[in-house]
Amino acid sequence: MRKTLLLAAALIAPLFTAPAPLAAQASAAQAAGKTKPSPLAPSEIVAAAPNADWTRIAPADLLVMELASDAKGKPRRVVIQLMPPPFSAGWIGNIRKLAAAHWWDGMSINRVQDNYVVQWGDPNADDKAKAKVLPTGLATMPESDYQINPIDELGRTAALASATTETRKMWSAYKKQCHFSAASKPPYICNISGVRSKHGKRSYASAEAFSKGWPIATDHTYTWPIHCYGMVGVGRDLSPNTGSGAELYVVIGHAPRHLDRNIALVGRVIEGIEFLSSLPRGHGGLGFYDLEQGDERVPIQSIHPGVEVSGLPAYEYLSTESASFANYADARANRRDAFFIRPAGGADICNIPVPVRRVK
Question: Which CATH code is given to the segment(s) 22-148+195-359?
Answer without folding.
Answer: 2.40.100.10
